[in-house]
Amino acid sequence: MGAAFEAAVATGDHVRACRLLAPQTRQQLEQDEQKACPTALASQDVPKTRGIQSVEAYGRQAMVRMAGDTLFLSLFHAGWKVVAAGCTARPDQPYDCLIKGA
Fold this sequence. Notes:
The protein is of the alpha+beta class. The protein has 4 helices and 5 strands; from the N terminus they run ααααβββββ. The model has no long low-confidence stretch (mean pLDDT 92).
């Protein structure tokens, strides 16, 4: 899932990438940018990635670390969806994410 989202963003397929976002994440992005998801996502500076380094799953939540980005996913009825992207670790603080839900 994480790789599919990153590949869609990297190739400019923002319509596909938006379908991979969790509903609240997509809604928050559209609200913040005052644009439809594909246009709003295209305006974000989502980091380029270079392959999956690790995946950690915790029940219905997962973190996917890639070279260049960290994604957070949740399991919905329709499958795994991205709830946060463009995330960077901060010492002793929560991750700082470019795209996230409310």
